[in-house]
Design a protein that fits this description.
Strand content: over 45%
Number of strands: 19
Oligomer: single chain
Strand order of the largest sheet: 2-3-4-5-6-7-8-11-12-13-14-15-16-17-18-19
Helix content: under 10%
Order of helices and strands: EEEEEEEEEEEEHEEEEEEE
Structural class: mainly beta
Number of helices: 1
Length: 397
């Protein structure tokens, strides 16, 4: 892999962020109580309605790359913007709001009894509050969760798929026991599409994309996973999972446009997550590892990332109470077919490595400063420049 030199004329801050929840959710619960509740209990356990939210403002600096261009009508096959492989040469430093979200939750009969609850996330940035509309959905998630028994639950609606992918309309059945848990899901299936590796639409990768407004052509996806969890001070969580579906006509056409050649319709994925967390004196260490392997038509993809983090906590501090230091190594291998590997004028065929460095600071309760640097490496003929710095202020209420 080519290791890219990182430089920005307008930036000198090398702070960072990228955080996931410290452990995969083991119990299906609504999130923490919001800033507004309706109910009859001082401690909130008798409440039947809660409203929380999240606001994110960020500054992004991306490199400008004018050396490479991949739009060509004479290439074989032709490369055009409509193929989803167009490379922009913008590069910029900009400020904007990334998220303005409200998160309502309704419990029946109350949060304490909780026979079922309804939970939603509505992102007002999808309405174009930065000055123009975008393709983001207003309803990020909206689902019913029925607690069938002490161990079993049924989830129906729009929510993140079982194994950390984009939201999809689905029916999910799951169970949590003391050390063992499982998930099964029937969903519309995500859609193969292109996605930038950063904030700019440059050097896209192929991505399993949210496509909740295109339900007619969707081929249903089945998924299942089984996990093992445990520990007291040292907590661990191991989850293996898989899914199967058929590519839609649009997805087959997408692969033919990008890579050419006929494509079979089989589409399957296998993966595993491993998470371990333990205290170091009064501080916290976490390690998360995920590997995915998928086959979409003739295309094979193999991805892996390893993410250690250390959170330094300051006692009896209402402000600047925690500092999380994080590193992530991201690796992606793409094989368009059995006889073809990297295609120089097809960014979505390139093998990738990304190094992420991050620093997350808890300024005070609910307010966090997230900072991250992404150093992107691509295996191709010539050097590309698409590193990125991001600093984000996040307020949750």
């Amino acid at each position: 892999m080519t290791h890219l030199k990182f430089s920005f004329n307008k930036f000198f801050i090398f702070l960072i962020l990228f955080s996931f929840p410290s452990l995969i959710p083991l119990n299906v619960q609504a999130q923490n109580q919001g800033f507004f509740t309706l109910g009859n209990n001082t401690f909130g356990q008798g409440s039947w309605f809660e409203l929380g939210g999240e606001v994110e403002a960020e500054m992004v600096a991306t490199q400008k790359d004018t050396k490479n261009s991949f739009e060509s009508t004479t290439a074989s096959p032709p490369v055009t913007a409509g193929d989803g492989v167009y490379h922009t040469t913008s590069g910029s430093t900009r400020f904007h709001f990334d998220r303005i979200m409200l998160k309502p939750k309704i419990f029946y009969p109350t949060k304490e009894e909780n026979k079922f609850f309804v939970q939603g996330e509505f992102d007002f940035m999808a309405l174009g509050l930065n000055g123009s509309s975008n393709d983001d959905a207003f309803a990020k998630e909206l689902f019913f969760n029925f607690n069938l028994s002490q161990h079993f639950f049924l989830k129906v609606g729009l929510d993140g798929t079982s194994f950390w992918r984009d939201e999809d309309w689905q029916i999910q059945l799951g169970a949590d026991f003391s050390h063992l848990y499982f998930r099964t899901a029937l969903s519309n299936g995500l859609t193969l599409n292109d996605m930038p590796v950063g904030k700019d639409a440059t050097y896209q990768i192929i991505h399993d994309d949210r496509s909740t407004d295109d339900l007619g052509d969707s081929t249903k996806e089945i998924a299942a996973g089984i996990g093992l969890k445990g520990g007291d001070k040292l907590k661990f969580d191991l989850l293996s999972f898989g899914s199967y579906s058929k590519l839609s006509a649009d997805e087959v056409q997408f692969l033919q446009d990008v890579f050419s050649g006929t494509q079979p319709r089989d589409n399957w994925l296998l993966g595993a997550n491993f998470n371990v967390a333990f205290p170091v004196r009064k501080h916290d260490f976490n390690l998360f590892v995920q590997e995915l392997y998928s086959r979409d038509g003739n295309m094979k993809r193999n991805g892996l990332y390893v993410q250690p983090s250390f959170t330094f906590k300051k006692e009896a501090k209402e402000s600047l109470s925690a500092f999380e230091f994080l590193y992530r190594w991201n690796w992606l291998k793409v094989e368009p077919s059995g006889s073809v590997d990297d295609i120089s004028n097809r960014p979505m065929s390139w093998d990738r490595v990304t190094h992420t460095l991050a620093l997350n600071i808890d300024i005070f309760k609910g307010l966090k400063l997230r900072n991250e640097v992404h150093l992107n490496g691509e295996n191709k003929v010539s050097e590309v420049k698409n590193n990125e710095v991001l600093s984000q202020l996040e307020f949750r209420f």
